Amino acid sequence: MTVLRFLNPFLFRLLFLCGLAVTSSALAQEAAPPASGQSKAYVVTNTDRIRIAVYQEDDLSVISRVDAQGSVNLPLVGAVKVAGLTVEQAERTIEQAYQEGRFLRSPKVTINVEEYAPREVSISGEIRSPGRYPLPIESSMTILELVTRAGGLTDTAKGTAVTITRISAEGKKEVFSVDVESMIKGRRGAKVADTSLVLQAGDIIFVPLRLF
User: Fold this and answer.
1) How far apart are CA 143 and CA 205, in angstroms?
2) Sorting pLDDT into bands at 50, 70 and 90, what band is 200?
3) Are 144 and 184 in contact (CB under 8 A)?
4) Which of 115, 138, 153 is the last residue of a domain?
5) Cα-based torsion angle of the residue sequence 185, 188, 193, 199 in order, rounded to the nearest 10 degrees
6) Which of 58, 88, 115 is the last residue of a domain?
7) What is d(CA 147, CA 189) in angstroms, rounded to the nearest whole number?
């Protein structure tokens, strides 16, 4: 008390305000839900094993594997489809499910991937190193990056008509034709849609033979 009496009034006030700021910051950290350390841009895939935490609702927090329909089974709300969504989108989707069911007013959901599903693509035909290649876990791979990783096109490859066959989660088959040769040579005619095309797990790439 004796020490405080001789403190400069301005300094005393400054110390008091600093103490309030520290206390407020600590309270804010305590009230905030824990943040996920994983990339929010990762796209959830069938058979991923994910931890779903609902802040301050321990009874609703679960670890679940994404089923063949792309859904997870959650307490109260049942099946919620999350496959094909980024982690952030899946968090918002689950929050919305609890809100629409009127179970929680303002839920805060955090998702962490405990076990990643195998993510591979295959490439065959006129490519120097055909085979199956794993996709990066929390980043993307383009067709050009895959061709480069597989050793490049052979001398007899028809690089202007590389096909990508994709089967959606609903079983729908799509086939894309991509001019990889123009991408490799940096031609102006290369389509922007082709250069930015990101491969998905299960894609089948085929490089045809060039007919002379």
Assistant:
1) 8
2) confident
3) yes
4) 115
5) 10
6) 115
7) 19
CB 111 within 8 A of CB 92: no
CA 153 to chain centre: 30
What is the reported pLDDT for 136? 85
The answer to the question of residue 32 being in a domain is no
Q: What angle do CA 153, 158, 160 make, to 5 degrees?
A: 100
pLDDT digits (tens, 9 = 90+) for 57-110: 999 999 999 998 899 999 999 999 999 899 999 999 999 999 999 999 999 999
pLDDT tens string 21-53: 444 444 334 444 545 455 777 889 888 999 999
Report residue 98 as tokens.
């609890």
Residue-wise DSSP of 26-40: HHHHHHSPPPP-S-T
